[in-house]
Amino acid sequence: MAGISFFSDMVQSITDRGRRLLAAGARSEPVQAETNIETLCDMLLSSRGEASGMALAAEVLQRWAQQDAAGQQDFVRMLHEQFGPDIAKLDKAIERYRSDRSSDAVIELHQAAEPRRQELVRRLNLAPKGTARLVEMRERLLAMKDATEPFRAVDADFAHLFGSWFNRGFLTLRPIDWSTPADILEKIIRYEAVHEIAGWEELRRRLAPADRRCFAFFHPRLADDPLIFVEVALTKAIPSAIADVLDVNRSPITAQDATTAVFYSISNCQDGLRGISFGNFLIKQVVEDLRRDLPGLKTFVTLSPVPGFAGWLARLRKATDASLDDQALKTLELLDDPSWADNPQKARVVEAVLLPLAARYFVKERATGRRPVDPVARFHLGNGARLERLNFLADRSAKAMRQSHGLMVNYLYKLDDIEANHEALAQHGEIAASPEVRKLAATASTDTSIGAPVRRRRTEMQKT
Amino acid sequence: MAGISFFSDMVQSITDRGRRLLAAGARSEPVQAETNIETLCDMLLSSRGEASGMALAAEVLQRWAQQDAAGQQDFVRMLHEQFGPDIAKLDKAIERYRSDRSSDAVIELHQAAEPRRQELVRRLNLAPKGTARLVEMRERLLAMKDATEPFRAVDADFAHLFGSWFNRGFLTLRPIDWSTPADILEKIIRYEAVHEIAGWEELRRRLAPADRRCFAFFHPRLADDPLIFVEVALTKAIPSAIADVLDVNRSPITAQDATTAVFYSISNCQDGLRGISFGNFLIKQVVEDLRRDLPGLKTFVTLSPVPGFAGWLARLRKATDASLDDQALKTLELLDDPSWADNPQKARVVEAVLLPLAARYFVKERATGRRPVDPVARFHLGNGARLERLNFLADRSAKAMRQSHGLMVNYLYKLDDIEANHEALAQHGEIAASPEVRKLAATASTDTSIGAPVRRRRTEMQKT
Amino acid sequence: MAGISFFSDMVQSITDRGRRLLAAGARSEPVQAETNIETLCDMLLSSRGEASGMALAAEVLQRWAQQDAAGQQDFVRMLHEQFGPDIAKLDKAIERYRSDRSSDAVIELHQAAEPRRQELVRRLNLAPKGTARLVEMRERLLAMKDATEPFRAVDADFAHLFGSWFNRGFLTLRPIDWSTPADILEKIIRYEAVHEIAGWEELRRRLAPADRRCFAFFHPRLADDPLIFVEVALTKAIPSAIADVLDVNRSPITAQDATTAVFYSISNCQDGLRGISFGNFLIKQVVEDLRRDLPGLKTFVTLSPVPGFAGWLARLRKATDASLDDQALKTLELLDDPSWADNPQKARVVEAVLLPLAARYFVKERATGRRPVDPVARFHLGNGARLERLNFLADRSAKAMRQSHGLMVNYLYKLDDIEANHEALAQHGEIAASPEVRKLAATASTDTSIGAPVRRRRTEMQKT
Amino acid sequence: MAGISFFSDMVQSITDRGRRLLAAGARSEPVQAETNIETLCDMLLSSRGEASGMALAAEVLQRWAQQDAAGQQDFVRMLHEQFGPDIAKLDKAIERYRSDRSSDAVIELHQAAEPRRQELVRRLNLAPKGTARLVEMRERLLAMKDATEPFRAVDADFAHLFGSWFNRGFLTLRPIDWSTPADILEKIIRYEAVHEIAGWEELRRRLAPADRRCFAFFHPRLADDPLIFVEVALTKAIPSAIADVLDVNRSPITAQDATTAVFYSISNCQDGLRGISFGNFLIKQVVEDLRRDLPGLKTFVTLSPVPGFAGWLARLRKATDASLDDQALKTLELLDDPSWADNPQKARVVEAVLLPLAARYFVKERATGRRPVDPVARFHLGNGARLERLNFLADRSAKAMRQSHGLMVNYLYKLDDIEANHEALAQHGEIAASPEVRKLAATASTDTSIGAPVRRRRTEMQKT
Questions:
Q1: Which of A416-430, C285-299, D63-77, D335-349 has the lowest mean pLDDT?
Q2: Chains A, C: CB pairs < 8 Å
Q3: Chains in contact with A via at least 3 Cβ–Cβ pairs below 8 Å
Q4: Which residues of chain A does C179 touch, with a Cβ-Cβ cutoff of 8 Å?
Q5: Which of A84, A176, C441, D380 has the fewest CB atoms within 10 Å, counting from its CB?
Q6: Could you tell me the CATH number of the domain that includes residue D435?
Q7: pLDDT tens digits, one per residue of D69-101
Q8: Total-model pTM
Q9: Interchain proximity C181–A180, CB inside 8 Å
C-alpha cells in the first residue's frame, strides 16, 4: 500500500518538478501559462521532449482534460492539421520509391507516411497514467460521433497504436471474485452491459457463490481497470432462461458437482478500445482455465441475447415478397400486443411460428461478406462456436422483449471443433448449428435475405 | 508460486491443444510436420490466425528456435521477401494519393507501405513468452552483423515495434537488492558490463550493505529479466577512483549519513532492444526516488569510464597539424610503457599533460552534429548532466588503462539545470562543464578537431 | 488467486484423507460416525494425534460447528469435566513442592495445574482455519452468558491462549481503503459499532476521499478478517460535531492541506477476542504512520461518544444528597422532553448546566480503582490521552441522545505527554484534562461520587 | 519494496521515540543509561509497560544483545531469580486449592505457579523483530550447555511459549526455488545439515532443474528465515546412493516423467526452536502437495543417513555375550582399515555380514520406550513411514563412513499406511519394515539388545 502511494507520489513529483522547470527554465524559453497546447505538443516532439518528456506529456494531458467539449474537438482538428505526415518528405519518398523500389525506399516511404501524431501519442504515454488518459482521449473522440475526415484520420492513428499496445500477448487474465478490490468491482457494476447489476448485493450474488466465476483481461498499465470480463455460472444443465441463472433464491451447487459452464454475460469495458478484439481470446482462455480447475466440466456454452432478431422480423413482416404466408403474418400480429407473453395460449401459438423463423434468421440469412446477420452470432460463430439451441421467452426483461421478443440462444464452445467451424464460416460461409436448429430452419419459409447490416454501436461491444 | 506455474501450464495447454488441432483439423488442411515455416506464417496472417493464433504463433517460434544459424538467416530473408508490403496495393495507394492528397489517402498509403511482417510480428507476440522470443529474435538478427538491405529492412520493423512496445510508460522501476529473487540476480551478474561482478559474494557486496542501491527497469511481460540497471553507492563525497567504491574492506556507512549518490555502473541488458533508450529515464527516476527516500542526499553524480579517450589521444599524437607541442608529445611517449602508472614520478609528469588534453577532449572536440566525441559523454551530457571532474588514474584495470589510460570522470545530475544543459547542447552545441574542467580545457593546445565518430558497438550499450 | 485456492484445496485434501483414514484405519480402532466428540478429543490428545492431528482436529471442529446451542453448551461442560488438570498429578506436584520448593518442583506444579484442554485447544489449531474456528468457539461461549464455574474456567483457558497467540508482536497493521478486497470491506460495514455504515455508498464516502483514512490490525491466520479498525478524518480543525465529519455534501480537502487527524470511530471486530487489548497499540501506531506520511499533521485527536454520561446524570438527579441545587435540577428536567434539543433557547439553558456537570463527570468522578467512570474515557485516558474539549449536542442520533444527551468529547493524543499522563493516572489517579475542561469542572457542584461501575458489555468493545 | 522498508522504518521510529521518552519522561522517573536491565524488565511488567511497551521491550533486547557471554548468562540467572512465580501468592493458592478444589482454585493455582518471566517474554515480543530476538535468546541459552536448575527452568518457559507460538497452525509452507529471494537462499546454504551445499552453483543444481523441489515452513513473523526445509529429487526409481541424486553431470528428467519423490535432506534451521517438531507435518504436507501437482508420482521415499549404526556396531563387537560369531567378528575387522571400501572383494565380504546386522539394528534393537535405536529411524518410523531398503555403501563421504560405514536407507511414506504404522509402533513397539528387510533381520544373530540411548544433540535436528 505504502509502496504504491509512494511510487505514484514520486512520479507526481517528477512531473511537478518538470512543470516548474518548464515554467522557470533558464535559457530555454519558459513555458508560461499562455503557451498553448499546440506549442507544448511541438516541444514534446522536439529535442526538449527528450529532457523533459514526462513533464511535457503530463502538462499536455492535463490541459486537454480541462478543456470543454468544443476545446477537445479543436484538439482533434489540431492533431489532424498540424501533426499529419511531413508532406514534403512524403513526396520525396514517393519520388524515390518510384525510381528505385528498394526496401530502403519502402521503409522511408512508410516512415514518411506516418502521421507525426503517432510519435506524439507515444510520447504522451510517458506521462504518469498516460495510457489511461490516452484511452480516455479516444473514448471522447468516438463520442463526438463526427465522421468527417479529420476525426477518422486521428482515430485511425489511435486504433493503430492501441492495436499494438493492447496485443493479447501483453494482457493478463485475472479472476474477479468477492476478494477482488472494491475499486475494480465498482467498475464491474458500471461496465456490465448485458444483464444490469443493480448494486453491491447483486454483485455479491454473481461473484461469491461456489458456482459462480468471473474473469477479466487487464493491461499492466491499467491495473485497476478491466478491459473485458465474462461472467460464468456453473450448472448441471444448459440453462434455457436467464431467470434460472440469476434467480435470487436458487441454492448454489458445489463447483465439483457442475458439468456445464455457462457464459451468460460478456462486457467490453473501454469504449476507447473499440475495434480491438479481446472476447475471442478471453472465452478460449477461460474455457481452458475452467477445464483444468474443474475436470467435471464437460460442456461450455453461452446464454446469449439476440439483439438483431426483432428488427429483422419487423422488416420481414413488412417485406412484400410473400416470404411469409398469411397464417404466419397473422400469428405474428400477436406480438404487437405487449402483453402477449403473459398469455400461455398466445405464447404457444407464437412459439410455433417464431422459432423456425429464428432458426432461419441464424442459419440462412447473411449480412455482407456472408457473415451472420446477428451481431452476437457474428461474434460467437466467428470464434468457432456452434449455435446449439433456441430458447423461447428466455428473457422477459423489457429490453430483451423489445430486441428479440424474449428469445435467447446457446452457443456451444467445443474446443475440438472450433477451428473447423471458424474456417467453414470464413471460407465457405457455412454456419455451425446443431441438428435441431438446422431442422427447425428447414421448416421455415423461403429465405429471401432481407437482413440489413447492423450499425456498429455500443451494444456491439457488449455481446454474449 | 502455484499460481504462476498453473498459469503457464494452462497457456501451454492451449498451445498444445492448438497444435494438435492444427495437425488434426478436420475440414481445414492439416498442419503436418512438412508444413514449412513460411506457410505457417501465412496461416497466422490469414483468417485461421484468428481462431488459432496462439497455437500457430507458438509453432512458428518453436520452429525458429530449433533452426541453426543458417536457417535463422534464411528466416530473415524470407521475412524480407515474402512479408514486405503488398506492392500492388502500395502502387494503387500512391496513385490515389497523387490525385487526391486527402487524409484518407495518406492513411491508405501508410497502411499499404507497412510491411506485412509488422502484423506478423504482432501476431507472433500472441504465443506464450512471445515477447521474450521476439526480443531474442532481433538479438540474433543483430548478431548476424549483416548490413545488407534485407537485414536492415527487417531490423527496421523490429525496431519500430519495440520502440512502441517498450515505451517508458509501460516500464516499471524496481529496486534490486539482496532479497531479490536469485534468477534475477543471476542476470545482474551476467549483464553487468562496466565493472565485472566476479560471483555471488561480490554481488552481495554490491547489494546488501546499507550504503548500496540498485534499480532496474522491467517490462511486464519480461518480468524476471531486467532491461537496464544502475548500481549506486551512497557516500560522503564524490569518489575519485573506482577502487574506493568497490573496496572489499571498506566499512559501510548508514544511508542516513550519506550526502552523495554515485551512479558507478549502468548496464543495458537486452541486445535485442538496441537503440531503444532507457538510461535517461532510469537515472532521473532513481535520482527522484533517492531524494525522497533519503533527504540527506544533496549530490547525484556518476563515476564513469571514458572509452574513447585513448583512441582519440593516439590519433592526436599521430596528427601532423602540430596541435601538440614537442614537449607534450614526448611526455605522452611515457604511455607506451605499460608500467608507467606504477612509477609515481612518471605518473605525475603524465598527469600534467593528460588532464588538460582530457578536458579538451570533452569540452572542445565534437563528433558529427556538434555532439561530444566520447560515447559515454554523449549519453550523460545529452541527458543534461554536467561534466564535473576528471579523475586521473581512477581505474587501474587492464581494460580501463587500454581505453582511457585509467581516466574516469564524474558527471553531475543537478535536477534544476538538466533541461537548460540539455537545450544548450541540443540547440547551441554547448558542453556543460564545471569551472575547473573549463579552466583546464583552456590550458590545452589548440583545438583542431580530429575526433572520429565512434562506431556503435555493444560497449555503447554499457555506458556510465 | 489460483495459488490460494490451490493451497486451501490441498489442505482440504489432507484433512479429507485423514478423516477417511480415521474411518477406515486398519489396526487402530476405526473412527465411526458413532464415535462421539469426547472420544475424538481424547484421540487428539493421545499419540494418534501425532499421526493424524490435522484430520482429528478438523473432525472435532466440524462436529462442534454442527451442534445446536444446547450441544455447544454440553461441549463446554465436557471440556470442563473431562479436560481439566490431572488431579492425581497435581496433588503429587503439590506434595513435592511443599517438600523441596525447587524450580523443578515449580515447573512440575505449573504443568500439572494446566488444564489438559489448553493442549487440546493448541491441537485443534492444527485444523485448516483452526484459529478462526477457535475464536468463533469462544465467541459462542461468551454469548452463552453463563457465569457459572465451568464456563468461567473454560473461558479462562481460551483467554490465556489467545492472549499469547494474538500478542501485538504477531499482528500486522494494514490500511483499509477503496482498493481493499470486498470481502474485508463487507466486514468493516458489519463490524462498525460507533457510527453505523448504512451501505456500500456510505462506506465509499468513508474510505475513498483524499482526506479519509482507515487502518486495521490483522492476524496472519485470520488474513481476511480484521481484529480492530479505526476510521480517521483529516481536517483543518478539531471537529465539534460528528455531522461535520460525516457530511455527505462536504468537499474533501487534499491530505497535504490537513493539520489534524481525527479518530472518529474505533471498533473491535472479534467478540471471541474480548479482553485482549489492541486499541492502545493501534492508535499509537496510526499516529506514527500518519505523522511520517503527512508531516503537515500536527494534532491527533478523537471525536468520541460518552456512553455513561446520561446514566450517571440520571442517578445524580435522583440522589438525595443535594449535590445538585434546585435550579440545576429544574433545568435538567428539560431533558425529559425528547424534543428539548430542537428548541435553541432550551438548548442554551441546558448547555450552561450540562457542560460543567460533564466536566465533573470526567474529571472528578471515579469508578473503582480511581479509574474514570466513563468506559471510553477509561480507554483513552488510560492510553495517556488528554481530555481536550466537551462538545455540546455533537451527535443528534437517537442513540447518542439517549446515552449522553448528544454530548461528544475530544481526546488529544500528544506523543510526548502520553507516558506522563498514563503514569499520573495509574500511580496517582490524576486525570489529564485541558485547562478549559478543568476550569469547567471547578464550577460544577460538589463532587460526591455516585458513579456506578459500568457493566462490561459489547459497547465497551466499540469505544472511541 | 518501498512499503516494507517504510514500515520497518516506522516501527523503528516508534521505538526510538519511546526510548527518548523513557530517557526524558517528565513526572515518571527517567530511564537513564544507568538503569539496569533488571529494572527495565520490572518496568516492562509494570503499568508503564502498557504505555511504553514497545520501547521498553526494544531497549531490553538491545541491551541484552550488547552483552558478552558472561552477561547473557547473568541475564538467565536474573530471569530465574527475579522473575519466577510469586511465592507468597503460590502458597496462598495452594492453601485455597487444598481446601476447596474448585475450578476457580485450580485457575488461581495455575496462574500463581506461572513464572512471571513468561509474561515478561510475551511483552518482549512487542519489540520490532522481537520474535526473532527471542528465538535467538533461547539459542544462546541452549548453547551455554548449562544443565543446572536456573537454565533448565528458564528454558522450560521458552519451550512452553514457543510451542504455542510456533504451532503448525500458524506456519506457512512455501516452495523454495531458483526464484526465491537470495537472502532466504543464503540461509538454505547455511542451514543445510545433511549433505553440505558448497556454494551458489551447487544450490542452483539442487533448486533449478525441472526434477528438483524444495519446501520450507515459515512463521509469519520470521518471514525471511525458514524453520525447516526438505529437499526433494524427482526420479524414475528409488535411489540407492546419494551420489546418483547429487551427480553434477546427470541429465534432469521432466517432472511429468517422474514416478518417485525422494526426500534426501531435511534440515531444521533454528536451534532456538529445539524440541518443537515440524518435520512430521512438513513431510506429509509436501507429499500431498506433490501428489496433487504431479499425479504421476506414485512413490514417496527418503534417502536417509543412519547416524547411530557405526557406534552401535562398535559396541556390539566389544560385547562379550557372543551375540556375534567369530566369523562375523573377523569379517568386521576389515572395517578397521579405512580403505576397505575401495577394495571390491573386501566390500563384498563386508556387505554379507553388515546388511543383516543393519537389519537387526533397525528391526530388533530398541532404545528406551521400545523406540528405534537410530535417531533418524525414530523420526521417520515415528511418523508412520516404513523401512523399505538398506543401501550398502550409499554414501562414501568421510562423515557417512564414520557414522554408518557408508550405509543409507530408504523410508517409504505410504499415506494409507501411515496411521496404522504409527499406532503399531506407539502401542505395540512394532517396527514397520519391508519383507526384504524383515527377512534380512531374521538371518542376523540373536538380538540381545545393546543399544544405548543416543544423546540429544544438534545432529538430531538434521535428520533425514
A1: A416-430
A2: 49
A3: B, C, D
A4: 181-184, 224
A5: A84
A6: 3.40.630.150
A7: 999 999 999 999 999 999 999 999 999 999 988
A8: 0.88
A9: yes
